[in-house]
Amino acid sequence: MTGAEATLRVVLADDQALVRAGFRVILSSGEGIEVVGEADDGWEAVDLATRLRADVVLMDVQMPRLDGLEATRRLLGASGPDHPTKVIILTTFDREDYLFEALQAGASGFLLKNASPEHLLESVRIVARGDALLSPEVTRRVIARFSTPSRATPVRRPADLTDREFEVLSLLATGASNAEIAQELFLGETTVKTHVSRVLTKLNLRDRTHAVVFAYENGIVTPGGA
Q1: Angle (nearest 5°) at CA 131 between 128 and 133
Q2: d(CA 135, CA 130)
Q3: What's a Pfam family this protein contains (predicted)?
Q4: Could you say which of 91, 107, 133 is where a domain stops?
Q5: Between 139 and 71, where is the model more confident?
Q6: Residue 180 region, left (φ>0) first, then alpha (ψ -120 to 50), else beta?
Q7: Cα separation of 115 and 124, whole Å?
Q8: Which of 10, 141, 204, 217 is most buried, judging by how many CB atoms fall within 10 Å of its CB?
């Protein structure tokens, strides 16, 4: 990345100053990433991210005054389409209920605090460009556990999607990458990327992770099935 416009603006939200300091050192070492603010509670995180027009917020779950999950809901509810903020939930707790609630709140990913510095840097870049941070295996496992539409329930197909876009959405929901979708549908990866972008725009979804949530909630795919 080069130029001020390409720099990713990051806000750190954690009630432990030493944790924030460590993350700041790691992120500041990454090219094209700038930590523009730090918050020690959820209220301050929402305020800073909104005022500073953060691209990505690293959000702790357990914070005073307002926890990270509720802060995520409020922040993303106020985030405008001209500058959508992405949230990565950071926690020491590897709990599926936190993960699913974070996705429902609008978070773009979930990362344990013991992640490597390289993984942390790459995670910020991944969510900033609108890709899914969760691995396909984790995404399917968690959503399949908490989202249980009946197989007998008719599929609620979005009326705005073309046949091809619906096929792309269905494959996205299985955790397939652009390359895998391209191979399955005999398309070029650039074409698939365009279809993915259109699906997200038409359904008003923040990223691929939320396309998976949407597909499960609308019966397009079913827990344990394709």
Answers
A1: 90
A2: 14
A3: GerE
A4: 133
A5: 71
A6: alpha
A7: 12
A8: 10
More confident residue, 90 or 95: 90
Cα 148-153-158 angle, rounded to 5 deg: 95
What are the tens digits of pLDDT across the range 69-88?
999 999 987 765 566 889 99
In sequence order, the 6+-apart residues with CB closer than 8 A to the CB of 200 are 130, 206, 207, 208, 211
Please report where in the chains the tokens 């950071």 appear, as a residue: 90
Examine the domain organization and report whether 83 and 12 are in the same domain: yes
- Domain that includes residue 189, residue range: 150-217
Of 125 and 132, more confident: 125
Q: Which of 74, 106, 133 is the last residue of a domain?
A: 133
Q: Return the structure tokens found at 44.
A: 């301050």
pTM, two decimals, is: 0.72
Residue 73 falls in which region: left (phi positive, over 0), alpha (psi -120 to 50) or beta: alpha
In terms of DSSP H, where are the helices of 30-131?
A: 42-51, 68-78, 96-105, 117-128
